[in-house]
Amino acid sequence: MTHHKNHDQAAQPHAAMRLDMVAVEAAKHSLAHGAVTPSYGPWAADIIQLLNDSLATELVCVLRYKRHHFTAQGLASPKIAEEFLVHANAESGHADRLAQRIVQLGGAPDFSPATLAERSHAAYDQSSSLQDMIRANLIAERVAIECYSQMIALIGDKDSTTRRLLESILSDEQDHAEELKDWLAA
Fold this sequence. Notes:
Helices cover 68% and strands 0% of the residues. The chain has helices at 7-11, 21-27, 43-74, 78-104, 116-119, 130-155, 160-185. The chain has one domain (43-185): Ferritin, core subunit, four-helix bundle (Ferritin), CATH 1.20.1260.10. The protein is built from seven helices and no strands. It is an all-alpha fold.
């Protein structure tokens, strides 16, 4: 059996894949902008705002996990207390990476304690029972997963570096949620 190209497909012209050389030339200038090139265009300010809101969320999560770490120790739950500390440190790492990206985009990371809770997508929690702590953390992780998923979709190809950062953080949050779900079931 011989395979022939569809003549209709072969006859149809296609747009050549070419780089935007004006943008390439512009990338040679303004070296102080680092990784941010003119192709970021009008999206940088919006992306910085999204990242600052996520930064607030991560910082509130650090505080919640730290509180739960110390409270769970008092409840004679050292294994879960240690895991809460591991999660707090992971969330702190996420906050650092978000702040670094905000600076790379020319923004200022907003660490203001005065507005942290209102900018956060996740709630702070003062539960005193282990089950309530786990539930509160699972809810917060699910909120983070939803927010990061939406941000990734919104950013799309507008900023591939930020998208990859958010995809990495999303993966961690999904792992945290699965772990918390397992603890809740135990």
